Predict the structure.
Amino acid sequence: MQKTFIILSMLILFAGTSYSQGNVKKIISYNVLEGLQQDSVNQQRFVKWIREIDPDVVAFQEMNKFTQKSLENLAREYNHPYAILSRLDGYPVSISSKYPVVNVQKVVDNMWHAYIYANIDNIHFFVIHFSPHSLKKRLEEVNLILAHAKTLPEDEPILIMGDFNSMDRSDAGQYDDAMVEGMRKREREQTHIRNLNNGEIDYTVMDRLKHSGFIDTFWLTNKTFKPSITTPRFGTPSRRIDFIWANKTAADKVVNGTILHDEQTNIMSDHYPVYIELDFSK
């Protein structure tokens, strides 16, 4: 009788642990550099790496040359049966998930690349990739995303994630005169690039997210700066332009988050992936 009680107690304990883990959603946003450079070795490196993390949702930028079918095939290799690609040409965004992806909207009009909106397990996702060359265009893009987000219930979790090609005011102390002068030099040499505002770093794209009630999830669980570009294989890590922004409802659920720097992410892309965990048992 005592043995039976012990076994039942252990089963209840394990069941409770499993339930708690099921309430934690692990999410990654990753600019993978032109479809992991369409390199089969690099793609398999990614699959092995992502399996170890076992995220519930992965948001991608730069899924170049993928089709809907090839994206689905890749996602199945890391146990995501659901995947959505925004477009076939250019620099697509995409999203994959362990759970059904519903109410999908693929928006190409008025976007430099595209964005995907989707609902996954009652979380609202926006996967974005803003203009790399024009501050004016990025301001138009963020206004469009925020207008869409305003149509959603405020008491439901909303996440806006991806490559914003913009820097945040909270990181201003990390950006020295040499870096800014390098950006000025590039604009002098390439007239189609207009990222600075009167020769200085512009923070207004990120400011608009903050003023609309969105929170930069990185600083919820980190005390020191980590760059998201450029990885050592492609340059010197220096800036943070990849973010996951959350409305208050989602931000209250964030229990962990970082920018993933490791041996594999040092070489898989020129960007590092952004990672968060949301605990819905809170």
